[in-house]
Amino acid sequence: QTNELFERDDQGREEVIGFRTGGIKVSLFDVSDQGNPREISSLVTGENGSYAEALYNHRAVLTDPASDRIIFDATISTDKATYTPRQGALVISYGGNRITSQGILEYQEPEIYGKYLPYGRRVAFIGNTLYYFQDSIIQSFDYQTLAPTGSLMLR
């Protein structure tokens, strides 16, 4: 999501001087009239400074049409006072033509220091198990409830 930044000129008129991001926005569009797409639902999460690789790389998004879900890793800025971000994989439903947040799979900080840790955060599922690959850790979750079921640290 973007917000326009304004400045007043000498005559008191406002003019747009730039833009600032205001969180991550996920939108659902009705494209039945291909010449006139229409936004029918949206969800904005986080504040200025939120980031997701999915904003620039469609391969960073898990889509599952069978369960009407999309999942992607993100850093969500939520606290304006301390700018403490929340990291994890956002689980979003688009069922019933409505975008809703189903939760966040929390990012787990690796406990290995002094070694090179590969950077890579992706989500995949097999059957009823959801896997969150986060740097040198693989976490597993129940796909329906999002309850953690296990964790594996790569060394």
Could you please describe the fold and organization of this structure?
The protein is globular and about 65 Å long. It has strands spanning 2-8, 14-21, 24-30, 38-45, 61-64, 69-77, 85-93, 100-106, 121-126, 129-134, 137-142, 148-153. It contains no helices and twelve strands. The protein has a four-stranded antiparallel β-sheet with strand order 5-6-7-8, with no helix packed on it. A four-stranded antiparallel β-sheet has the order 9-10-11-12, with no helix packed on it. Strands 1-2 form a two-stranded antiparallel ribbon. A hairpin with a 2-residue loop joins strand 9 and strand 10 (129-134). Helices cover 0% and strands 54% of the residues. It is mainly β and 155 residues long.
Low-confidence regions:
none
Rg on CA atoms, Å: 19 Å
Strand content: over 45%
Q: What sort of overall outline do the alpha carbons produce when their principal axes are compared? A: globular
The overall pLDDT average reads 85
- Number-wise, the strands total 12
Largest sheet: 4 strands, antiparallel
Neighbour order of strands in the largest sheet: 5-6-7-8
The helical percent reads under 10%
Number of helices: 0
The structure class reads mainly beta
Distance between the termini: 38 Å
Order of helices and strands: EEEEEEEEEEEE
